[in-house]
Amino acid sequence: MALNGIDISSWQSGIDVSSVPAEFIIAKATEGTGYVNPDCARAVDQALDCGKLAGVYMYVRGSGAQAEAKFFVDQVRGWLHKAVLAVDWESGSNNAWGNVGYLDAVVAEIIRLTGIKPLIYASASVYGQIAQVGQSHDCGLWVAQYASMDGTGYQDAPWNENAYGCTIRQYSSNGRLSGYNGPLDLNKFYGSREDWLAYAAFDGSQQPAPNITVPVAPDTNISGGDTYTVQSGDTLSGIASAYGTSWQHLAEINRIADANRIYPGQVLRIDSAAPAAAAPAGSYTVQPGDNLSSIAFRYGTSVQAIASANGIANPDLIYPGQVLSLGGGAAQDSGHSYTVQSGDTLSGIAQSLGTSVQALASANGIANPDLIYPGQTINY
Q: Residue 122 pairs with which residues in a beta bridge?
């Protein structure tokens, strides 16, 4: 049994969820300790009113674990025991990224305040982190991993779905569904309607035990010329690093066409004699903890330029070992900028400059268009 659904944020403000063929919707509610999605309440209430299942999530900013959790709970209190709760753990605009203890503290505080175990969302590249926290608190996992950025409808069997245990799999950020003219995040929930309500602790019901696969780290003591069996959560770059070689070399000797497509149980030839190869000129190999904004800043280009050059639809989803074209070098600086004033909104600035919110957000590495601050410089 499985259910199909979408997750939404302010980027989809105004979406008529009653018209979209989704059995559930999960809406962004808060970010940090100061931002509330202005369209969350409308979307969630509309979903519940038309008989759909609903969820709400908080985006971690690293501004204080207990404070962020309390801010989220205060905003969603009216949907407790009606909607599933979730914590979004991503690198963009997250000062606590990489600190698993911080994520653990956020989850623990939500449970303390509500008695409800939230789902934990992250990309497959950090599955080990969320699996650790999920096991500690008996929470389900919501894992994002895409086969490509091509447009798609719902999929019965998303690519690589059996590589790890999870409650929800997000498999596309370029979903195309009737009832909405734009890209949507598509998700598969591994359970029934009753299971969903159990995760929401509907009427105080017992939450089901989550399906979590514990990743196994590579044995770094094996000598060159041996083999390694891929474990859940592994990446080719991580295996290569453990054996002192390069992911490019492992891909070559194992005839792997796509470095993002390895699977648990796959046996890889290991030849640690080959040194780690440098990325081709004009490119960069993504490292653990990287995000597109930091890479763009480092090489004097923009998030938009790198995303465009590599066909990346969701700038928050890149993977260790991924080779990115830097878009032909540093981006050209237009020489035009605007300093944010008190009361400004990105949409208002975009309108006055004759451009779009999306263009300004991409050009300036702004992950959340609703979060800008006085004194911030906006290039256009």
A: 143
Q: What is the pLDDT of residues 60-73, one digit of tens each?
A: 999 999 999 999 99
Name the token pair of 375.
């004194």
What is the tens place of the pLDDT at every residue in 71-128?
999 999 999 999 999 999 998 889 998 888 999 999 999 999 999 999 999 988 788 8
Residue among 4, 6, 7, 109 at smallest CA distance from 60: 109
Angle at 25 between CA 20 and CA 28, to 5 degrees: 125
Separation between Cα atoms, residue 150 and residue 148, nearest integer Å:
6
d(CA 191, CA 169): 12
Q: Please say whether the beta carbons of 133 and 120 come within 8 A.
A: yes
pLDDT of 222: 39
Task: Tell how far CA 251 is from the center of its chain.
Answer: 26
Residue labelled with tokens 């991409």: 362
Cβ proximity of 363 and 379 under 8 Å: yes
Model pTM greater than 0.85?
A: no
Distances (CA, A) of 10 to 16, 231, 253, 318: 13, 37, 45, 22
Q: What is the pLDDT of residues 272-312, one digit of tens each?
A: 555 444 555 677 777 655 677 767 766 777 777 888 787 77
Amino acid identity of residue 251, one-letter, is A
User: Quick one: tokens of 10?
Assistant: 């302010």
H or E stretch covering 74: helix 65-76
For the chain, strand residue ranges (E) read 3-8, 24-31, 35-36, 53-59, 84-88, 119-123, 141-144, 168-175, 184-189, 227-229, 267-269, 283-285, 323-325, 337-339, 377-379
